[in-house]
Structure formats: C-alpha cells, structure tokens
C-alpha cells in the first residue's frame, strides 16, 4: 500500500539497520529480539550443517544446507493470522518412515527454489516476498561448507590432537575442541551479506554453538574484513552456559579467548553477558580482561528466561536498546 504524503515519519528506532550473524537456535533468539527494534533486519547464516534434513539435502542435491536459513526466515515471519499459519507450515516436519520423513516443509521449498532460480540468494528473497517476512535472510557463503576441528582428549594421551570433520561431529565430540577451520579454505563470502554488514547501524554476533555457529563467521576472509571495516556498533552476545560437547567446561572468559584466537584483530563495542551466568568478583574481573582484547567491556543484564538456558527475546531487545542509548547519549 502506498504511503500517504501526510503520514508521520517512522520512529527512529524503526529505521535502525541491524545485521545479525549466527546460526540455529542462537540466531533465532537474536532475530526474535532485534525484530522488536526495527523492520530493517538482515540475518547472515552459517551454511555448514551436515546433519538431519539439511545434511540429507546438501548431499543429495548439492545445495547449501537450508535448515538454519529456514529457522531465520521463521524468526522474522509475522506470527499472527494467516502469516502465522504459514510460519508453522515452514517448520512442519513430515512424519512417517518414507523418503520425506523428517524433512521440514521450508527446507524442501528452499531447496526447490534454489534449483529453479539457480541462486540461493534469489531463493531466499523469493521466500521473503511470498511469506511477508520482515527483513532479509542471507547465507554466510554461497557454497556449502564443512567444519574441521582440532580436538584433544579423545585418545588416551591427552596431548594427542585429532582432526574431526562435520558440524554434527564437532558439536557432539567427547573431546576438547581447540581450533576450527572451514573447508574449503577461505570460502567465498555472500556479496549481499558483506554489503549488509557494511551498511548496518548495529551488527550482532552470537549467541549460538560457539565453534559451529559463531566462530565460522570470522573464518570467511571477506566477511571478516567487512566486520573490521564497518562503522556499525558491534555487539557480541555470549551464551548462557557451556554446551555439552564442543564447549563443555568452558568459562565465559574461555569463550572470548577462543574467539580472539580465531580472529586476533577483531574488535567489538559491546559484549552482552547474562548477569546471572557470571558471579561477582574474580569471575567478572577475568571476563573484563578477556573483553579488553576486543576493545570492549562487558554489559551485564538479565537476558535469560528464568530457570532456562534460553535467551528472553524481550529482555535481550531491552539490553540492545540500552546500548543504543549509551552510544547516542540518551
């Protein structure tokens, strides 16, 4: 519908351009928060998933894994009326025991559109238009990627390092992940994702599976250069707790340390930490020292749903608004 000439201007917060980087449930939480602040949201999504429906489709059709992209689309979809029904349809998984069992409808639609249109970005944009999604969803890279990790603690000798490949293997390893890389090495970035980072007012990285959804974003050279060059306020949102498998036993400080190892020159403006997840005293002091490597200091806020390890979208949105106010002198 055309805008009337006398219509009031959109509130300033609605014009905020936010680009959120991540994957899976962590990115879903971020998008559920930032959509409360603005309609100008771009999600940049990891494309290394090799499990479940995504893994089957990438191996059978040679497409980028659609699962995390689908979740990002649903996070930005209207949740009421007919649009809400379509969001449920995109998430619906087929039952039974046949070839379709376990596939979400949205994964199949994305894979089919990518084949018809010959371009995953055009396929995602078509989904946005068709389902009235507020924002844009883009892949981190236009080719499917693999994660390879150096892991210790698998062999009897804890000093021995083994390489394991695949996002599922990394996420569930009984060993201790030391470092990850992407295959192919130095993969091509999605040009539209790079542009979204450069034009953003705020870039949000995390939360999410640290080695398989967060760190991969700094392993795409062109995307890392954009993160370094952007004038946007950069916000790192930390996880609420270590994840079984890849970050078991990690302190909050350790999460920052391994990120800085993978991207030594990366700086951020703010690091959002759930106040209940880090105790006062020495633990917060150590975290502050780790944050200083990024040129930032932590912001402690109540951002978890009480009694869970899930971010509360409303609380996280409130924490981000506070950061915007600090920068603007509000």
From TrEMBL:
Stated role: Required for morphogenesis under gluconeogenic growth conditions.
SUPFAM superfamilies assigned to the protein according to its UniProt record, in alphabetical order: CofD-like
Assigned GO CC terms: cytoplasm
Location of the protein in the cell: Cytoplasm
GO terms assigned for molecular function: LPPG:FO 2-phospho-L-lactate transferase activity
Keywords: Cytoplasm
Biological processes per GO annotation: regulation of cell shape
Family membership: Belongs to the gluconeogenesis factor family.
Highest taxon in the source lineage: Bacteria
InterPro entries, per database record: CofD, CofD-like_dom_sf, Gluconeogen_factor
Record bears the keyword Cytoplasm: yes
Designated name of the protein: Putative gluconeogenesis factor
HAMAP family: Gluconeogen_factor
A Pfam match: CofD
Keyword Mitochondrion appears in the UniProt entry: no
Cited CDD domains: YvcK_like
